[in-house]
Automatic annotation (TrEMBL):
Gene Ontology BP term (one): response to hydroperoxide
Gene Ontology CC, one term: cytosol
Name listed for the protein in its UniProt record: UPF0246 protein J3A84_01950
Biological source species: Proteiniclasticum aestuarii
InterPro entries referenced in this protein's UniProt entry, alphabetically: YaaA
Family listed: Belongs to the UPF0246 family.
Length: 248
């Protein structure tokens, strides 16, 4: 069993005393980084639809990419999903579980283990960067991420905790895995909407739950009860597991 999550734009550049690993697609990453280095600030601002300040930050990042400091991915990413994972409070064996069972999808790195060493960047998977392989990053990565995930999932089960933008890098291609989608919904009167902010944190909490409980089977996921969520058998259907809670 393997789970996937999206990365985050929020990052914390802080050294961590832990053994790191090398990203699987580092050669592809370097190709993309060289491409991105060709953009000026205005070009990045338009490409990424970001402010001038953010464009300047990421221009500087790509210009100095070759010599930039490296950090373990799950410690560098600090957005909502990673707040849910809260890796700083996990035990060594739980971090080992994540490094074996969790993959972080990335526009620049393709797919990462939590302890892969990476450099600070911003490059979302949905970015329409025309490159030598096609019109966007989905074309750039092609089938590489899908084949990698198929190889990594020993029991052919993938738990999808990623956003649609990122899961598109391996779906809807014909993937030789059984994919389970996980949804987190808030009860509001007689409706159960997905609220993005809460869902992102909950996706990270599910990854944490898997690590803390050494989850090896899909059925074990149904015991997830963090932050007031509970498995909703009525709303769950097929390979979509739905968890709900009373609106906060």
């Amino acid at each position: 069993m393997i789970a996937v999550v999206s990365p985050s734009k929020t990052m914390k550049e802080e050294k961590v005393d832990i053994e790191t690993t090398r990203p699987r697609f580092i050669r592809d990453t370097n190709v993309l980084a060289k491409d991105m280095k060709k953009y000026d600030v205005a070009g990045l601002e338009e490409l990424m639809d970001i402010s001038t300040d953010l464009a300047t930050l990421n221009y500087d990042r790509f210009q100095g990419f070759e010599k930039a400091e490296k950090y373990p991915a799950a410690y560098l990413f600090r957005g909502d999903v990673f707040r849910g994972i809260d890796i700083d409070t996990l035990k060594e064996n739980e971090i080992d579980y994540l490094n074996s069972h969790l993959r972080i999808l990335s526009g620049l790195y393709g797919a990462l283990k939590p302890l892969d060493e990476i450099k600070p960047y911003r490059l979302e998977m949905g970015t329409k960067h025309e490159n030598e392989r096609g019109k966007d990053l989905y074309a750039f990565w092609g089938d590489k991420v899908r084949k990698y995930l198929e190889k990594e999932a020993e029991d052919n089960i993938l738990i999808n905790l990623a956003s649609n933008e990122y899961s598109k890098v391996f779906l809807p291609r014909e993937i030789n895995l059984t994919v389970y989608d996980i949804e987190f919904r808030e009860k509001k009167k007689d409706k159960y909407p997905i609220i993005a902010y809460y869902a992102k944190i909950a996706r990270g909490e599910m990854a944490r739950y898997m690590a803390v409980n050494n989850v090896e089977k899909v059925e074990e996921l149904k015991g997830f009860n963090y932050s007031g969520y509970a498995f909703n058998e009525t709303l769950s259907e097929g390979n979509t597991l739905v968890f709900t809670r009373e609106q906060k």
